[in-house]
Amino acid sequence: MPKYILVCGGVISGIGKGVIASSTGLLLKTTGLKVTSIKIDPYMNIDAGTMAPTEHGEVYVLNDGGEVDLDLGNYERYLDVTLSKEHNLTTGKVYQRVIEKERRGDYLGKTVQIIPHLTNEVQDWIERVSKLPVDETDEEPDVCIIELGGTVGDIESAPFIEAMRQFQFRVGHENFAVLHVSLIPVVGGEQKTKPTQATVRDLRGLGLFPDLIACRCEKELERSTMDKVSMFCHVSPAQVMGVHNVQSTYHVPLLLQDQGLVTYLQTRLNLSSIDVGDRGRARGQSLMTRWKQLTSGHDRLFETVSIVLVGKYTSMQDSYMSVVKALEHASMRVGRKLTIQWVESSHLEPEAQHEDPVKYHDAWKALCSAGGILVPGGFGVRGTEGMIVAVKWAREHKVPFLGICLGMQVAVIEWARNVCGMADANSSELDPNTTHPAVIFMPEISKTHLGGTMRLGLRPTIFQPSTENAKIRRLYGGEETVWERHRHRYEVNPELVERFEQGDGKSTGGLKFIGRDESGQRMQILEMDDHPYFVALQAHPEFCSRPLNPSPPFLGFLAAAAGQSILAEHLQRNEKEYRPPHPESSKTLRSPVEAADPDVEAKIAADVARANGRE
Ligand code: GLN
To answer: How much is the pTM?
Structure first.
């Protein structure tokens, strides 16, 4: 049975519980243990797929097509694991399971109640999912981090807290520990412990006793504050961890390590009883060494590389969480300090000039000074014209460009309009009446994702013949097939591909669809061959980037933004050394079903309506 560490939070949410939880997992991994994680989100949605990015941040996509909370991204990145949609438990999912069972008659006529039926379901779920292999060893994990979203005391999280209270007895004291993350505000220059005292009291009242209290604070936690927390929260000083603001979140594991987090957990959970073997120990040590190099290298970056991110959800930067992380990973590999300028794409549009000239000018100023221009994913028409002009700028002024999903679609629209002479070219998502549908609705109706019309999850892209010298292929290690995660419905119109590749018919270079799906019908990677770096992908490579294994398209982009010689260096290095992060078992082809579902039209309409709601 795995050891369980419940990470919950108090006072307010959004203070870095996810980072503390994944840092704890990472530290345990450096001792050779195999670590997995489960995120509990106490909202009623079944998953994050229907949530607006501007409200809830990015929808994170998994290999199996799960659309989940962005915290799962933290775990995949820090722990270098591959999670499934089952690793994200929501109120919606547990209720759905219990109601299904009730309808089937599984409860044999009993009155179905939150305690014990729902709370049992939560515990069964956690027990089952915590045993799923998630890393390259393909073995059962030794430790499972359970992160409970929200704060203790919320009505929403009450059934989960109760389930965890029962769970500590189900698995036994030496297999279950609680890490409570709290906030220490500063008032009048003094670090205040009252809110922490109150939240710990709440937690105890609900039957859970903190083994560790991680105190988030702006500056280092003072000795006297630590003593006070220890005294009033009835824990020893060794159980109080200070987590102040540090230069980057990559420092948090080392901060916790210095305060004895691992030593404490080793005793508390009797971790020495788990035999990690020589290979496990060596794996852990190598991870620690590489992580230390990464963080110390990060502190010594002085030269900067400036990227402009032209998106439509920039008011909520968490909407682009994984994109930012992928840029960070790449910048650390390239050895440059990353600066991101956020440009709301609609501010680049001609109308903005009259409506808000200051924003218009600021946006253009940022764009013109960019070392690299990135257009990420998105849904709906708002802001897309601004993205198109940004692509035009990148193409004509030879500024390194990376387009992701919608970013690839607008790049094709720009090319169609300004090079191929199709003045009204558009995507049928953005203008259903266009006479030149450069991008069209190509849903994927799959056996495994019933009712869904999105192309979701890990899919292969096959590089076309004679593309060995393409930059993006070399960055992917020269492989013929590469796997990335998808989340979209629209794609480049296969009927226009030949015309697009001919460009204006005069010049030899231009835009080439060098990577396609296994049927050859879906255009998945494009590259401009007479440009320093102009790459776009229909997939979302940001979801598979790791701090120690940056995503190839991002690495090439960042390197090109830092200079041509740096790009050349990384092309050479990756061509030899790049190893994809996916376990072999996740590379399975999912075959689409031909017109199987009579309700498919209605489902498509519902999906599209929801997508528009995301605008
Ligand atoms: N809206 C586009 C589509 O559905 C792009 C999606 C995205 O960027 N994730 O195809």
So the answer is: 0.91
